[in-house]
Amino acid sequence: MESRSVGVSALYGIITILLVFLTNSLIASLLMEFLPILVIQPYMFIVSFLAYFLGGFVAASKAQVHSVLVGVLAATGVIGITFLIQLFGYHEFPTGIQVIQWGLFLAFGVAGGCLSQHYGRRNSDEIIENGCG
Q: Where are the beta strands (DSSP E) in the chain?
């Protein structure tokens, strides 16, 4: 029962990340009518990191336990989808920069999961048990 809860929570995180990406894409496409791409690019870069952070936060909030694991699963799910689309859709392997970005995205997902546990709980022993001490 607990593993199902972790899986469903990770799915909530994945859906959150994809919804933030969709919203970010719509906002960026509207901004491109008025601004050059060089102005929009840093905004999109920052929002992508916030999306992974928010996805880890939502997933860990839903799970209430194993916050690091759920944050990793949520981030890894979206990274895996991106990798598979790039590999099979565009027939390209990831570059070194992309691998570094994916590592940072994973770290932001874990940080969101840990912060969720610190934000939602007051007992420090319980936080340490969940792996975010």
A: none
> Alpha-carbon torsion 122, 124, 130, 133, what sign?
positive
Q: Is 0.85 surpassed by the pTM of this model?
A: yes
**How many domains does the chain contain in total?**
1
Contact between 4 and 68 under an 8 Å Cβ cutoff? The reply is no
Of 67, 74, 88, the closest CA to residue 13 belongs to: 74
pLDDT tens-place string over residues 110-131: 999 989 877 765 555 555 555 5
Note the maximum CA span of the chain. 52
Task: Provide the token pair at 85.
Answer: 């689309």
Distances 13 to 56, 63, 80, 89, 122 between C-alpha atoms, Å: 6, 10, 14, 24, 23
Q: Contact 73/15 with Cβ under 8 angstroms?
A: no
**Which tokens is 45 given?**
């870069």
Question: Domain range for residue 22?
Answer: 2-129
Side-chain half-sphere exposure of 78, counting CA atoms within 13 A = 33
